[in-house]
Amino acid sequence: MGEISQWQLIKKGAEAWLYLANWHGRKVVIKKRLPKHYRTPELDERIRIYRTVREPQLMHEAKKAGVPTPIIYLVDIKEAMIVMEFIEGDQVKKLLGLISQEERDRLCYDIGELIGKLHKNGIIHGDLTTSNMIQDADGKIFFIDFGLGEKINEVEAKGVDLHLMKRALQSTHFKFADECFNAVVRGYSSILDHAIVKNVLEKIKEIERRGRYIIERKGSREPSCGSEEVRKGFKHLK
Amino acid sequence: MNKGKAEKKYCLGIESTADDFSVGIVSFEGEILANIIDAYVPPEGGIHPREAARHHADVAGKVVEKALKKAEIKPEDITLIAFSQGPGLGPCLRTGATVARALASYLCVPLVGVNHCMAHIEIGRLTTGAKDPLTLYVSGGNTIVAAFDSGRYRVFGETLDIALGNCLDVFAREAGLRPRMGKPLGAMVEELARKGKVFASLPYTVKGMDLSFSGLLTAAINMLGKEVSLEDLCYSLQETAFSMVTEVTERALAHTEKKEVLLTGGVAANKRLQEMVKFVAEEHDAKFCVVPSEFAIDNGAMVAWAGVLAFTHGITTPIEESFVKLRWRLEEVEVPWVK
Prior knowledge:
The complex is a heterodimer of chains A (238) and B (339).
Chain A: E1 4-12, E2 17-23, E3 26-32, H1 41-64, E4 72-76, E5 81-85, E6 89-91, H2 92-95, H3 101-120, E7 123-124, E8 133-136, E9 141-143, E10 150-151, H4 155-172, H5 177-189, H6 194-210, H7 228-233
Antiparallel strand pairs in A: 1-2, 2-3, 3-5, 4-5, 6-8, 7-10, 8-9
Chain B: H1 3-7, E1 10-15, E2 20-27, E3 32-39, H2 49-71, E4 78-86, H3 90-107, E5 111-115, H4 116-128, E6 134-138, E7 143-149, E8 152-158, H5 164-174, H6 185-195, E9 206-207, E10 210-211, H7 214-222, H8 230-256, E11 260-264, H9 271-283, E12 287-290, H10 293-296, H11 300-311
Parallel strand pairs in B: 1-4, 4-5, 6-11, 11-12
Antiparallel strand pairs in B: 1-2, 2-3, 6-7, 7-8, 9-10
């Protein structure tokens, strides 16, 4: 691949390294999934190849669904490498804390709409965080990092996807996680049918009940002081 | 009795979230004087919450007595009672809470309920010297990747269904392994895995920073007794499950940019997991810390120490508010002593 020049490492991500480079006079981003030596080579190769193949497929599908994603120029499966368009803009992660509440509301609503478009077409992003969204100068929001995504039209998958968005907001933007997620849901609801949205939101609740997300209600009665039997057990401590 | 000891302050901590009933005693300065653990070993199958709770009630008095003896202090030297208030199994938690309330009212000392997961992180910090780590807490009941930010431990990744330790235990039981005294099922899987050579492909499920082990467990169980040997299957199961948690740990590490990684929980004793997490930590220039086994499994000392931290920062739990919280999330807890 002699056409690529001026490689410049821009990010050592956990999963892949990102380079900025020149490809036929274009500014491109190269995403290279390097071997992970902590895992067994068979598993490592399987994961890297699978994700390198799946990611551009899903980015293409997303674009067809009306969700902006970078243009894919080249895929090198052997090297686990994807060459794509460089998007000039800001990570939503960085933007959220800098803009007004109104702008934040609008941005999250738009993000919700885009997630709605993905889900309407059976595309699951798999890693919806604010780090994986870039807004360019025209206000267009690009989704990136589809490596954990899948094509599946199930309520369960949609629920988990949206739940991950909620969790990402809670861990990284805890100050305005609730308002942001509410706006995301409003945007999401404007795209999908009411019945589907209802099912997905119900699913999120179910997923939260599966894990450890619910605060125990005060309903279960507890003795207000130690029971006689237990207290008797300590007599000998005197 | 040592006269100096009577002037010092001590906290007695009670842990009973699952199969272990444990009492630890620590001084307010962070010396661990006793950590007695009495595990409930089911005759067969997994932990039945009611049976485990019955065990806890049976041994409670004895374990408290042993801990006091080990610490060489008298009951009246205790200045604070701490207990695991959640998350955990209801009947087990309630037994521990009842013992704690009884002791506190009997000795006329304050009571403090602490979050079990937070206690794991705090004893890890105390015993390893880690200051502000990214914590990977893996046990039979929990699989959590957490780090401190703005007053609380934030959960970055966790399991969406069963815990890592649970996955390994259930598999081991389905494979016909039985726990023996001093040797948990996880250690047996580890031993067999070391003899495995051929990697069998199993479902690998990472969703964002969250994980799912239920599909992996089902697939592994379905392969039992087929052409793959048990050694190879243990090896493949461990490799797959550990790669999943390591991947999530690495992503959280890259995201938070913490300079220490703390590995804790019952599964932390696994050498292969230690190796993988250590590898990732070093790659990100972070110090790798693994909590000593005695304090990595569920133990009373961690509860006592977390109790000291909470109490010295103005937190107590009045008896009428000491109901247990079965699903008490780590990120609901304020930790004003950090930073």
